[in-house]
Structure to design on (228 residues):
């Protein structure tokens, strides 16, 4: 079974631009979460989606948004990029909606904002 | 609100010696606890989880974790460390009261010296 895939793997943008990152979960997984990983802040929770509904959102500004499609694929968008948005963005999927299931992570998208 | 702490930024251990990576947590309801490992230039991988039941949980690659409710801890252990265990380890918690998010600790870097 194929793992979680994220595209693109690397991205370079300039301040003020916007970016869209894509995540395809493991087949059959309906829950998708997004995280921002930086050396200083560690892994910060962005959002969790289940069956196209956002179930929770982390403490990020409104410039960060996401969505999930009917096939469970998910996208996240960051508008008006800032230098501080440079990070590794990780997507993770889980098989169900329960609290006790582990997450499977993709390789991440490395975003650099110049 | 849920939180998780990994008090050590780095743990150094000699190959063949036992290792412990510490984690403490705080949740409102019953905790669901996880350990993940991140090897260089790779995504996070699930190691093990505690849901309920036995306080000693066994996971991948010979790792195990001990759940202690009174001390609100979930320390990761391995009887004999390998150089290949050198990586970044994350403890994570979800809360049975809902919230639909996983909170990660800051991570502990493990160095195993030959």
């Amino acid at each position: 079974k194929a793992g979680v895939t994220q595209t693109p793997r690397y991205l370079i943008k300039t301040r003020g631009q916007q970016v869209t990152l894509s995540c395809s979960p493991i087949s059959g997984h309906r829950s998708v979460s997004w995280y921002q990983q930086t050396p200083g802040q560690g892994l910060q929770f962005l959002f969790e989606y289940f069956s196209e509904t956002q179930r929770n959102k982390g403490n990020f500004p409104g410039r960060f948004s996401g969505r999930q499609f009917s096939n469970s694929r998910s996208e996240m968008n960051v508008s008006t990029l800032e230098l501080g948005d440079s990070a590794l963005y990780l997507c993770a999927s889980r098989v169900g909606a329960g609290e006790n299931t582990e997450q499977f992570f993709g390789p991440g998208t490395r975003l650099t904002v110049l | 609100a849920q939180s998780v702490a990994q008090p050590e930024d780095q743990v150094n251990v000699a190959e063949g010696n036992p290792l412990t990576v510490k984690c403490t947590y705080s949740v409102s309801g019953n905790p669901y606890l996880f350990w993940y490992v991140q090897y260089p230039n790779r995504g996070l991988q699930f190691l093990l989880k505690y849901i309920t039941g036995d306080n000693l949980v066994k996971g991948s690659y010979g790792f195990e974790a001990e759940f202690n409710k009174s001390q609100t801890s979930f320390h990761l252990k391995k009887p004999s460390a390998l150089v290949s265990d050198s990586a970044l380890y994350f403890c994570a918690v979800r809360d049975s009261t809902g919230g639909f998010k996983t909170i990660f600790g800051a991570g502990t870097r493990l160095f195993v010296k030959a």
Notes: The first strand of chain B starts at residue 3 and ends at 5. Chain B touches chain A through 24 residues (CB under 8 Å). Residues 16 and 81 of chain B are 5 Å apart (CA to CA).
